[in-house]
Design goal:
mainly beta; about 55% strand; Porin
C-alpha cells in the first residue's frame, strides 16, 4: 500500500516511498496542492492478505471553494466539500510492480450540482500501476468520476470527469529521483442545453518535470512538479503541484 498511495492521485509524482514489511498493516497520509484542485488530503490504509495481495482503503477530500456549496464570487467558505472514500485490492506480482484496482464513492455537490450536500453523488472506478526497480520509476493512473444523480433542476446538469496521468523518471539514489509528468482532466458530460452539450471538454493538459526528495529512514517524501498547460491561455499557461507524504 505504501508504494501505491504515493501514485494514487499524483500525491507523489514518483513511486518514491517503497513498501515495507509486506506482512504488516500500513497507513499513509499525503498533503497535496496543485494549480487546479487546490489543497487536498489523502489517507490510505493497507491490510496484507498475502505476500502479493493487500486489501486497501482510502479517503480523500478537497478544500477548494469552487468544489463546495460556497459563494465563489465573494470568496466565502462553503459546505459539502467534495469527499471520496473507497477501497479495493493491490496486486504485487513482482517486488518492483504493483497494480491497484479501486472503487470510490464521491459525496458533495461538485458533480451532481444540487446546490447542497449529496451523499454518494458519484462513483469512481480507478486503476493505478506503479513501478520502481531502484533505478527507474513510473506510474500510470486512470479514474472515471461518474455522476449518479442529476442536478436539482432535473435537466441533466452534471459533471463527469475522466482523470488520467503518467509519469516516469530516474532514481538517482535513495534520496532523489527526477522525471517527467503528464496529466489530463476531461469533463465528459457538459450540461444539457449548453453550447457544448454532448461534447468532451478538456479542463487541462499538463506536462513538465518533477523532483522527488525521499527520506526512507523517516518514511517521508516531498515532491514538486511544474511546467506548461499545453492548452495554453484558454485555461492556464502553467501548472504546479506539490506533495508531502508520510507513511506509518
Amino acid at each position: 500500500m505504501k508504494l501505491v498511495l504515493s501514485a494514487l492521485i499524483a500525491v507523489s509524482l514518483a513511486t518514491s516511498v517503497h513498501a515495507q514489511d509486506n506482512d504488516k498493516t500500513s497507513f499513509s497520509v499525503a498533503f497535496n496542492t496543485d494549480a487546479f484542485f487546490g489543497f487536498n488530503v489523502l489517507a490510505g490504509a493497507g491490510i496484507p492478505l498475502s505476500d502479493s495481495l493487500s486489501l486497501d482503503f482510502y479517503g480523500l477530500f478537497w478544500t477548494t471553494n469552487g468544489f463546495t456549496t460556497g459563494n465563489t464570487a465573494t470568496g466565502g467558505g462553503g459546505g459539502a466539500p467534495w469527499t471520496e472514500f473507497g477501497g479495493g485490492v493491490t496486486l504485487t506480482p513482482v517486488e518492483a510492480l504493483s497494480v491497484s484496482l479501486y472503487v470510490g464513492v464521491l459525496s458533495g455537490n461538485l458533480q451532481s450540482q444540487n446546490g447542497r450536500a449529496t451523499l454518494g453523488e458519484a462513483i469512481v472506478p480507478n486503476l493505478t500501476v506503479a513501478y520502481n526497480d531502484g533505478m527507474f520509476e513510473a506510474n500510470v493512473y486512470a479514474g472515471f468520476y461518474k455522476t449518479m444523480f442529476a442536478g436539482a433542476d432535473h435537466r441533466g446538469t452534471v459533471n463527469d470527469f475522466l482523470h488520467y496521468w503518467t509519469s516516469a523518471g530516474y532514481v538517482i539514489n535513495k534520496n532523489f529521483s527526477v522525471g517527467v509528468h503528464w496529466e489530463q482532466l476531461i469533463n465528459t458530460a457538459y450540461p444539457t442545453g449548453s453550447t457544448s452539450a454532448g461534447t468532451w471538454n478538456t479542463n487541462y493538459s499538463w506536462i513538465g518535470p518533477y523532483l522527488s526528495v525521499n527520506l526512507p529512514d523517516n518514511n517521508a517524501s516531498l515532491s514538486f512538479a511544474g511546467g506548461l498547460d499545453v492548452l495554453g491561455p484558454t485555461t492556464q499557461e502553467h501548472f504546479y503541484k506539490m506533495s508531502i507524504g508520510l507513511n506509518f
